[in-house]
Amino acid sequence: MTLDEVKIGGLGASRKRVEDNRFIRGTGNYVDDIVLPDMLHMEILRSPLAHARITSIDTSKAWEIPGVHLVLTGEMMAARNLAWMPTLSYDTQAVLATDKVRFQGQEVACVIADDPYTAKDACEAIVVDYEPLAPIVNPEQALAPDAPLIRDDKEGQADNVIFDWEVGDREATERAFAEADHVSTLDLHYPRSHPSPIEACGSIADFDRSTSKLTVYMTTQAPHIIRAAVALVAELPEHMIRIISPDLGGGFGNKVPVYPGYVASILASILLERPVKWIEDKSGNLISTGFGRDVYLKGELALRKDGKILGVRMHTDSDHGAFFADAQPSKFKIGLMHSTFACYDVGAAHLTARGVYTNKAPGGVAYRCSFRVTEAMFFQERMVQAAADELGIDQAEIRRMNFVRDDDFPHRTPFGFLTDSGQYGKCLEVGLEAVGYADFARQKEEARRRGRLLGIGISTMTEPLGAGNSREYDILGIKMFDSAELRVHTSGKAILRTGAKTQGQGHETTWGQIVAHELGIPAEDIIVEEGDTDTAPFGMGTYASRSTPVAGAAVSMVARKIRAKARKLAAHLLEVSEEDIEWELGRFYVRSAPDRGVTIQECAMAAYTNVPDGMEPGLENTAYYDPPNLTWPFACYIATVEVDPETGVWDVLNLVAVDDCGVRINPMIVEGQIMGGLTEAFAMASMQFITFDADGNCVGSNYMDYLLPTAWETPGFELHEVVTPCPHHPIGAKGVGECATVGGPAAFVNAVMDAISHTGVRNIDMPLLPDRVYEALSTGRDVSGAPPVKTDES
Amino acid sequence: MTSLFSEISPEPAADVPVRRITVTVNGQRRSADVEPRLLLAHLLRQAFRLTGTHTGCDTTNCGACTVLYDGQPVKSCTMLAVQADGHEVTTVEGLAGASELHPVQEGFRDEHGLQCGFCTPGMMLAAKALLDRNPDPTEDEVRWALSGNLCRCTGYQNIVKSVLWAADKMRGPDTGGGGDRHDEEQP
Questions:
Q1: To 10 degrees, what angle do helices A507-519 and A553-574 make?
Q2: Residues of A in contact with B142 (CB under 8 A)
Q3: Is A369 part of the annotated catalytic residue set?
Q4: For the segment A459-498, what is each residue's pLDDT rounded down to a tens digit?
Q5: A368 catalytic, yes or no?
Q6: Which of A78, A115, A133, B159 could form a disulfide with A51 if both were Cys (CB 3.0 to 4.6 A apart)?
Q7: Size of interface A-B (CB pairs under 8 A)
Q8: For B118, which of A16, A198, A708 is closest by C-beta distance?
Q9: Please, which residues bridge with residue A353 across strands?
Q10: What is the ipTM of this complex?
Q11: pLDDT by residue (tens digit) across A723-750?
């Protein structure tokens, strides 16, 4: 009898999460929970200034405090060739500042002591003399001809430009604009934001002198990449380095880069020959670790008067702070900004992109998105809405008209990507129906007559996921792919390990489901381990929603290798040739006699007890999966809002999400990911941003100043689905964890702009704080959110 | 003697003032010698090795360190250990009975009320405190009661459902709550 796949926890089962058992009991194992014998504690002294020359550092008082074992400065690091480290974007970053500090919060010194309280005391006893320099806090200042050079440490760096890059067909785009009936332009800023997992960063470095082996417990989303980076910095070969990433309290891209604290704790452990723990406090985390976004856009659309998009021209300036420190899995330095307009059938497009250094913390991490995709989709959907308004075309209709059609796949996007499948029109129609689009328009008009401002905003977007493939994507030159190792024991129970690293996505649950789907082994008989470089196969980690598209595919492929060997074992057990064997979930049988069969568990036992002559015993294998292409999930998010004309406060009335992420492995987890992503989208649109004053002081260094939505502010969401399987993924999945964060913000902003469209205001930069909305309502002018916020203007 | 962090500093420096405190943690009386500046969160985590209480923000905002202090939810990252002297503290480790989960724990598991799990202990204790004083909360009351706890993963919707599920279960079938109405095993 064929197994019921859903009952054994296979594909499509809303299986309860395995990992929850320890989390709900408080027995998770996060980095800060780990205690090693003889462990010391490290704290970091950070720069109070955004830009200054260091004239002296006096650590003598710190050394005198009982319990202090080591005070590290940049000078001591430099003596060991460790003052600077390579970043994942081929830049350099100071570990501890030697010459200058280049952003507020930059690491200047470290103290290692018996406990963190003593280490903090000693940090306060360090005296640093700074000679202040003029800070640069936005790209405009950075690009000014007389701008001070921020990275004077870099040979050949004559200005503050990191990269200046273009893609697309400039000439064809110019022709499209020449032929256009209308050109719509829009200037936007996507503000700087911090991913802010509730758990900050931390590490415990443990160098064992007797074996020369370095073990580091670390909050990292990409343990193997970190191992490669540590090998470069510590001048130890990889086999002498073990990175363990235990339970992580969220990541969202923030835990991909290498941070100075990790490196300093490693050096301290090597010097002291004792384990050294560094746990960052929240302020240190908010002001110094991976920021996202901070991109300015000048966008233009060439349009026919009926709304057909003929061409797209975009220029972006992005602010990366003092070091270009994000992970950059692409030879294109602007990441995947050029995934923009992928869901629209656009004839010609051209994009120029520039990145600059400023006196801000290193930014540009992929905050719950595939690199610059969030900005790309936000700009796209804001540009499309502005164009619809100008031409007087319904905002749903302009999308309908320009979408790539279901029978147009594979489709080459205007910037050269190949998309494989999708039902863009259907997603939109499902969303419009769910939100009651036509009826809302009537309500809106009635409300307007009574002085109430209702608005509806649409965002339709597609996100490139699954970085890979190895032809086009790499980190530090290491090609992007992923891996899975499956060991089936004698009893048919199994352990699976992958090169990914869960941070709440539920890998322990879903990977078991993929194996159950492929082999018919119940998911509960499979345990999953990740995050230990000594045991997991080499992989690229988890970010950019790449787990299911790449690591999940590797899980499928390794299970299929196991099945192929099990088939040979089945033929041996059933005493027929392999060609006579058929497979159904969990069981092989003889084609001509379906009652004669063996289960996968019986094959597993045979692999260790009764193999045919010439066959290697055992039932285990490893698969490395190099995706043939990116996957392209699609989504349609529609928000309805009411704006209070007296205060600028806006409330979400409804948010309808229609996600097409291909085949859903665990629908419960997929929906959880979408709801989480929508909340981050709402956060970006409504309150969450980090800005800087004119002196480069970070405004938002704690949760009193950096506003994150709580259960009270966060609206409810209504979820719908369309399923278009990915044709090149083994189980047809596309990935979903970030889609709502990527596509959601434009829905909220478009809705508010729709509500106030009568004022002639075309843009308010996020976040749409009540004072910004009120300013737009009362002046009729666009409101820019571009920093610096001038705090001391008199 | 437990000074700041016992595992690394068994003998405090001579000039460090310490004070003996006794706290009833999860029903068990426990004593420690602590510096007056030691935070309650660190007493629980480092001295008592109850690491389910997480420290997230250090500023009383995120709520990951929420524990029950004489039954009331407090944020242990901004409370001194000495303030707990003679009081009762419940941490996430004290939620479950010997064999059974607390309904709030069951609710979080059944309604997918967690993802990375870091905020979960604080959320569940805030939820328990709510349900102890209000067994039949509205959705708005749940949202308000949890508004001192931040979550970055879940979007809260399922957390709210988890708490309502627990309320339902705790009221039991006799009150019309039908504690098993969400149970997938039921027809």
A1: 40
A2: 711
A3: yes
A4: 999 999 988 788 888 888 888 899 999 999 999 999 999 9
A5: yes
A6: A133
A7: 200
A8: A198
A9: A165, A316
A10: 0.96
A11: 999 999 999 999 999 999 999 999 999 9
